[in-house]
Amino acid sequence: MALGNRYKTAPGAGTLAALILVLVFGSPWYGDWAMDTTDANTAGGWWLRLLNWPAWQFDTADSLRDVVVGDLKAILVVLLTLVFLLLLPGSQLARARGTISQFFAGWAAYVFAGGFAALLATLFLSNPSLLAAFQSAGSGAQYGLFVGWIVGLASLGGRA
């Protein structure tokens, strides 16, 4: 028996979309492909490279701390997406499923999740600085701004 749309929650669908984005596009294989086959000086190439932002890796050449921090950023993006989807009122206040408020709540949740994940992960780097934390948060929010619409679309139609 297939579960219909009536069982889909907006936070669950948005978090699942965030998990898929991070697992697929944050993978080392996608990152290598994007760097080798795209041109950063075109809009499409820039966007395809941006998709790899919360990259996770298993590289033995890096220090354990750097590997954990890189993976922590990817994990935090997914977890914070769930937290912000639960906290943002757009999906709860929407009278009808599939309204524009659910879309923007999902999108905003991913912008906030990207920014805060980068900010928190930077604090665990060796020699963290406030400037590096702010710059990293900016890159995370930029990622959320240009990729978060996918999470917003996934959140459409779900119940709060």
From TrEMBL:
Keywords (A to Z) from UniProt: Membrane, Transmembrane, Transmembrane helix
Top-level taxonomic group: Bacteria
Transmembrane helix recorded as keyword: yes
Spans through the membrane: 12-31, 72-91, 103-125, 140-158
Protein name: Uncharacterized protein
Organism from which the protein derives: Actinoplanes teichomyceticus
Lineage: Bacteria, Bacillati, Actinomycetota, Actinomycetes, Micromonosporales
